[in-house]
Specification:
Blueprint lengths: L1 E6 L4 H12 L4 E5 L3 E3 L10 E9 L4 H14 L14 E6 L5 E3 L2 E3 L8 H10 L4 E2 L4 E2 H7 L6 E3 L1
Helix pairs in contact: 3-4
């Protein structure tokens, strides 16, 4: 399973670190990317984001994982600010192995993965050969083909 954590409100390095610690209560975090910085995607008039990817093992179902991710965000003090707005902490489910979920409240793999360099760059660092179902392209393939013009860079 691969998760993406992001933050652009407050002490982001601390929030990302604490988010990982919180996640580790219900899963084994086996690999974490460097932190990447970049402009906000989808809504430009806000501070830059810091993002990192985490590879983990867990036995949670997709719905249980979603609920847990929301709990982790709430513990970080996340305040609803609308779609693509500033975030104290965002936890996105990027991949869950070969699972494909298409529900109104949850889509796995993340539906915008192929279009977001800020997601693909850190995920590529920890899992470049991970296959994205159902099409079978790897994370590396998606990053190489990504047309997102927003630069991201390791901090």
């Amino acid at each position: 399973m691969i998760l993406l954590l992001g933050c652009n409100v407050g002490d982001c390095p601390r929030r990302l670190r604490e988010g990982l610690e919180h996640l580790s209560r219900k899963m084994e975090v086996v690999r974490v990317s460097r932190t990447y910085a970049g402009k906000a995607w989808g809504k430009a008039d806000q501070p830059r984001f810091l993002n990192l990817a985490a590879r983990a093992k867990c036995l949670l179902t997709p719905d249980e994982l979603l609920a847990f991710a929301k709990d982790v965000e709430a513990a970080a003090g996340r305040v609803p600010r609308g779609r693509w707005g500033p975030r104290e902490l965002d936890v996105d489910i990027v991949l869950m192995g070969e699972k494909v979920v298409r529900e109104p409240h949850l889509v796995i793999p993340h539906p915008l993965l192929a279009f977001r360099r800020f997601c693909l760059a850190p995920v590529s660092e920890i899992a470049p050969g991970a296959v994205v179902p159902p099409g079978g392209k790897t994370i590396r393939d998606l990053l190489n083909a990504c047309g997102d013009p927003l630069e991201v860079y390791p901090t």
